[in-house]
Structure formats: C-alpha cells, structure tokens
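Co-fold these.
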Amino acid sequence: MSESLAMLPQVIIDGLTLGFVYALVALGYTMVYGVLEFINFAHSEIFMVGAFAGTEALLILQSTGALAALPPFVSLVIALLFGMIVAGLLAAGMERVAYRPLRGAPRLVPLISAIGVSFFLQDAVRLFEGLWRNAFYLTTPVLYRQTLRFSNVDIQIRTLILVGVCLVIMFGLTTFVNRTKLGRALRAVAQDQATASIMGVNVNFMITMTFLIGGALGGAAGVLFAMQYTLIHPYVGFILGIKAFTAAVFGGIGNIPGAMLGGVLLGMVESLGSAYLGILTHGAFGAEYKDVFAFVILILVLIVKPSGLLGETISEKA
Amino acid sequence: MRKYRWLVLLVVSLLLVSTAVAGCGKPKVIKIASVSPLSGAQSSMGEAMKLGVQMAIDENKDKFKKLGYDLQFTPQDDQADPKVGVSVAEKLIADKDILLVIGHLNSSVAIPSSEVYAKDNLTMISPANTNPKVTDRNLPNVNRVCGRDDFQGPWGARYAVETLKVKSVFVIHDKTTYGQGVADEFRKKAEALGVKVLGFEGITQGEVDFSAVLNQVKVKKPDLIYFGGMFPEAGQILKQAREKKIGAYFMGADGLDDKGLIDIAGKDAVGVVYSTAAGDVTKSEVGRNFAANYKAKFGKEVGAYSAQAYDSANIGLLALEAAIKANNGKKPTRAQVSTETRKVKYTGILGPVAFDSKGDNINAKIYIFEIKEAKYPGTLAAELSGKP
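Predicted complex below.
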C-alpha cells in the first residue's frame, strides 16, 4: 500500500495536466452552446487542426534552423499564435459555411452538419499531411526537455507551461466575457438573440466572434497538447473531443467556469482511476476501466444535479 | 431535344456492341485481391503488404496469359477496422472473378472477414495474422504463412528469461484481439517460467497519454515491460516511460515491427526487443534480391510483411495454376483453388512453406529482433521454430 501512496503526487500531476487540456477544449464546446444552444461536434477537429498547425510551425522552424537559434519561448509563442489563428479562422469559416445557412432549421440539422464537417476535416488533414510529408503521425519537436524533481515526483517544464498558459487563457476569457463591452454583447446574444439585435447588437458578428474565440482556444489546446504528448495524428481529436464534451457537461454546459472545473476534475478522475483501480480491486478491474469509472461518476453527478456541477437550471426559452 | 435522345441511344448501343465484340477475343479474367489497411494509422504496414502481392502478380502475368487467363489485381482497403473488413469481404465474394484473397493485416479484421469468404470457400492466405483463432476454427479456405501468437508470445517470454534474464515483468496490452491475445500468451509462459507478473493492464488504441499506467509501472519497478499492441502506442509508451526514468527492458511482438516505431520513439527505441513472424529479408540471397527488385519497382524499402505477402501470393498463384490444369484449362471453382492451396509445397524468400490440415504453416518461424541503433529494421537476435 505504501508504494501506491508514494505515486499519488505524480498521479495527481499527470491528471491535472490532462485535465487542463480537457478544460481548454471544453471551453470551446461550452461557449458555442451558451450562445447557440447547439453542440459543435466539429470542435474536436478544430483542436486537431490547431495541433497540426502548431506542429507544422515548429517543424518548419526546425527545418530552417530557426528553432535552434531562437529562444524556446519565442518558438512557443509562434507555434501557439499560429495554431490559434489557423484554428480560430477555420472555426469562424466553418460557422459561415456549415452552420449559418441552417440557423433557422430544427436543432438536429446543424448537429448532423457538424458531424459532417468533423469527418471532412479529419480526412482533409490526413490527405494534406499524406501529400505534404507522406506521414500519418507527426512528432512535435520538444522545446523544453528539463524536468524538475521533488523527491519522487517529476514535473516537466513543459507541463508547467501547459498549465500556466491554460490559466492565462482562462483568466483572459473570463475577463473578456464579464468585463468588456463585447463580452456584454456576447452575453446578451446568449440570453436572447432577437432582443439583443433590437438593442443594436450585431448578432451575426457576435456569433462569428464566438466561433473565432472558441476555435482559437481549441487551437491553443491543440498546440499545448502536441507539445506535451509530442505525437499527433488526424484522428487525435476524436477521443479527446468526447472527453472534453463530457467535461463541459460535467461542469454544466454553457457555463465557462464550469467547463474548466469539469475538465480538471475529469482529468483527475481518469488518472486516479487508471492508477488505482487495479490496486484497489486486486486486479479485478484494471486501468482499462478508467473511462467506465469516469463516466459512472459523471452519471452520478448528473442524477443528483442534472444541470452539471456549476450549471444553473435554465428555464425553457419562450 | 428529341433528336439528341436518339443520338445518345445510338452512341450507347454502339458502345455496347463494341465491348461485346472486344470481349470475345479477350482472355478470361481471374482477379486476385489484397486486403490490408491502406489508409489510417497502420497504412504503412498495409501498403507494404499490398506491394508484395502486386509484385508476385506482375511477375506471373505472362505465365497465366499463356494459359489463357488475364490476371488482374484489385487492392482493397480494410482500414484496420473489422466492420470495413467484412463489407469489403462481402464485395469480394459477390465478384465471381475473384479466386484468391491475400490478407489481412489485423487478426481482429481477418477473423470475421474470413467467415464471409468461407461462405463460398474463397481462399484466403494470410501473410500476417498471428492470432490462434484465425486457423483454429478449421475453415477449409483459411491459411497463413506466418507463425502464431501462442508461439510468438511464449517464445518472447523464453527469450526474456533465458537471454535478458528478467525476473519480473509488467504487461500492457491494447485490448484488441491481437494485442491482448499475444500479451496473454506471453504472461502464461512467463508465469510458467517463474517470472513475477507485476501487472496486466489495458490501454486504448488511439490515445497518446499513458502516464497513468506508467506511474504504476514506476512504483512496481519491473525488469521488463511487455507490450501487446501496435507500434504507435508502443512508441508513445516507450517515450513516456523513458521520460519518467523507467529503465526497464521494453519488449513487444510483431505489432512493433515497423519503421513508424523509430519515427515516433526516436533514440528511445534503442534497446527495444520484439518478436515477429516476419523474417529478415537481408539474411538470404533470395531475400536481398527481392528487396532490391522491390526498391527498383516501387521506390520504397520493403516493409515488415512485404516478403510474406509476396510468398502468400505466389502460393496462391501456384494453387490457381494447379487448379486450372486439373480442370483441363477451364476456369476453376473457388473450392478447387481452396483444395489445391493446401497441397502446395513452396520454398519462398523466408524458407519452405507447407500447410497442415488447419491451414497453419508447418515451417513457420518466430524471429526475435533487437533495435541496436535508432533505425529500422532491428538486428536479428534469434531465429526460433517449433513449440516453445
């Protein structure tokens, strides 16, 4: 038992790392849901495109020799910005092409359209990378190799960067939504599109903004993910997207702090589950049951609190 | 408009007549299919298989032309997915010109697909499916040239004990038919040889974060990590294990036998030991010639199962030829080809092949490779045959 306790700090740190990635992706789901009450299933592919864009930026820097010359921090910023811009623009473009024409249609129609976009993006990236690098997997260059050691706990510098960037982005987003004029317009659109437009808010512009910001967050998550785990492929968004969506529901979909909390908690539950299930049940349930474990907890939470951890009960719109 | 309609009708009927006329003079068509993943994560292995088959067919085209047959090759993509595999199989079985299937790469795809081929006794020769169930169902149409997981896993265990001298092992698998199967066989033999199995955990294919399982490995300090699964996850686990300063030996089966492992794990791949049912083509004169021809023809290096796919296709073609002759030059039925396949005695790139009553190759070997520097393939460490 003592040895299983000894690994606890490491398990918590690995869980936090994964949790912050989930949280960042979950924000994209929750923002779009908050404004349009529609689940953008293609968000997981926006994440994946961000990961590829960031990795490509680093690979191109590497091939020109700039990666070795520049301080790692500069490369990090370049990759992050590039990933965010590509993913943000893609998400906004996707809204224009695939969702806006369906704005008045029944709820399920844009959902199907989102699934279509998702397949399209997966295979478009696969085709592009196949032609461009003749590769399915890309290995992301590692910027920070150092590891901090505290007795039996290893913390990689890049994990700290991941958590740090996530916190900055989340803080920035919360400030933007709650304290700026644009943020107020966004909340107005979320509450009631018709009334907001009477009050002089450009609804289409605000929705494009939502996708732009949500997409950029997904892109940032993708770049950070690629840097942390250094291996990406065109289908990498699929499992992660499902988990992040779960995290958004867990925290209360439509609620920004809820998405963050849900993400971090889900990451922790998964990490604890796969580390301890085997030990606690003496091998009857192994690490392969971690997802079952995580989803059982999700179901329990939703039974007790159907709107999620931080979600408010929203009355049906008239 | 009306005028045009007549014109269209005329053109169409002319075309029909011309193809019918041309069809008379043409030799009869026999189609051979390869089925392997040509897209997705494992496409590099699948492509290498396809090209091996293509090479055998191209070399035999003239011979079959003399017999009055036009040999055609139709490569199929099963996407390493059992559902896709079965629907491809349904498509193949519906096309009566198809008399031979070389495939698949993954046992989990081959098993349900071969049930479909069995409906019409369509011969399947597998270059790569190592799961015992592939042949243990005693289907008359299913054969394989490679070894079996209940040889591969145990030989791996023996090698680990006798050569690497390990005393404890942590087993990880990817929950697939192949991965969990070979890991299970490894575990059984390892336990029988007195090795302590400290854990047996599953991971999910397609994930990239394995830190949670590796935290367990770290506190249990095994001498060896055994992984039953494919190279992408293997490479990622290996990389993360070394990052966590886990210095244990890393061993796996033929799922690791791909250049992709080196691409993903880089320098961390050094020291990896893997067993495989695919031999080293550079060991023999025939093999080196094959590799050179392959490179000249396709501009690529041979993959893990290229040579085995080539051998499989050649065996199938010998059976086809025998069936045609037995049938007095008429096009044989699928059942005839299937019966002839079991009778073929053939010596290929990787040695002699002959099938037993289940369709297993009685001469199948298991090879152990070690990666000594970060390049593919590794160095052949042992060549084993028979029951471990």
